[in-house]
Write a structure and sequence with these properties.
The chain is an alpha/beta fold. It is built from 3 helices and 3 strands; from the N terminus they run βαβαβα. β2, α2 and β3 form a beta-alpha-beta unit. α1 packs parallel to α2. It starts with a strand and ends with a helix.
């Protein structure tokens, strides 16, 4: 089983499709958890991620740092 870490910043337009694509792997037991690390979005990114049951963290808006924060979690 794997954990999926998704760094985001104002990803409202694309996040739902991304998370929706992970549902079959989650049902099959391949994906253990989805961690969305938000870099300070001002749109509905956090709300969408929470609606899909993802664990949502905050980190400064820097892709590498966001990935590191997700991996640490």
């Amino acid at each position: 089983m794997i954990s999926v870490v998704i760094p985001t910043l104002n990803a409202e337009a694309r996040l739902a499709a991304c998370l929706d694509a992970l549902i079959p792997a989650t049902i099959d037991g391949l994906v253990r958890e989805v961690i969305v690390v938000d870099g300070g979005s001002t749109d509905r990114t956090r709300e969408i991620a929470e609606g899909f049951g993802a664990r949502v963290l905050s980190a400064p808006p820097e892709r590498g740092g966001q990935l590191r924060a997700g991996a640490d979690a």
